[in-house]
Amino acid sequence: MTRIDLENLDLGGAKPNRSAVARVRGWAREVWELGEGDSVVVTELECGEPGCPPLETVILIAAEARPTVQHKLHLAARDVRREHLVTLHIKESDA
Known about the structure:
The protein is an alpha+beta fold. The protein has one domain. The chain has 2 helices and 3 strands; from the N terminus they run αβββα. The protein has helices at 18-31, 82-94, and strands at 39-46, 55-62, 69-73. It has a 3-stranded antiparallel beta sheet with strand order 1-2-3, with helices on one face. A hairpin with an 8-residue loop joins strand 1 and strand 2. The mean pLDDT is 86.
């Protein structure tokens, strides 16, 4: 089976702030307590919907022992803070 490197996947489009994306990815690994076999994909996407900020950060977590989840933050990656991820994780755990 071919393994795709999801963490470094280039989806095209505008170039994201790589250092901010890497920081968010690291926080997600910590907050969700992910192992080496788990993947985190963080992308910064342009949002064209009315009233939506120009950029949003999408976090996809594919862990071996749990269902894949996706979270959207209506913030550029540079504006995401670790506390945002903690809040997402708490809401996910409560669901």
